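Collaborator request, handled under Task 6.
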Amino acid sequence: PKDEMVFIGAYGITEKENQRQGIVRELYISSMMQAASDAHVHGKQLSTIIGESTSDSEKVWNSLERKRVYVQTGPKQYTEVPYVQAPLDFNRRTGAPTGDPDGVPEHLQVNFLGGREPDKNRVIGAVTNIRNWCSLWPRKAFNSHQAHTNHLQHVEEIGQAFNKFLLTNPGELKLFSAD
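Structure tokens returned to the collaborator:
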């Protein structure tokens, strides 16, 4: 919705000797507070916090109320949404990903604020923004128009697969932690 803003959670990486001291948690909380203030300044409400996680970082995000996203795929059956981080690096000559063309499977974790129920359209919109921000390169980054077109098409196909999974499974969304 146009009167809402989404906070896209970022990575928090610290050197080994600085881990488990609460640095990432404090930075994250400060960022959320700033996001809520920014939303208010623009006459909007911070509605959703979303981000990627790995098994290594999931417990931190769970402690901050972000949970994995599942969709009902059958009677009393829920399946984690198959989130894939689109490739982040591309060949400037061809537009093809330089790493795994299928992207990297990760866990999508969300916190719907203010008592909002899990919502497929909010998830699709937020994931589209993650993909656009992280994976879409400008035309000038490529050697040719065709390379840029190839790049855009590749990123779009990953997004379409995610959207198709959510939209072809008409069941409700639920949020669960890994525990």
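The cover message to the collaborator said: "The two ends are 32 Å apart (CA to CA). Residues 145-168 form the longest helix (24 residues). Please let us know whether this matches your experimental observations."
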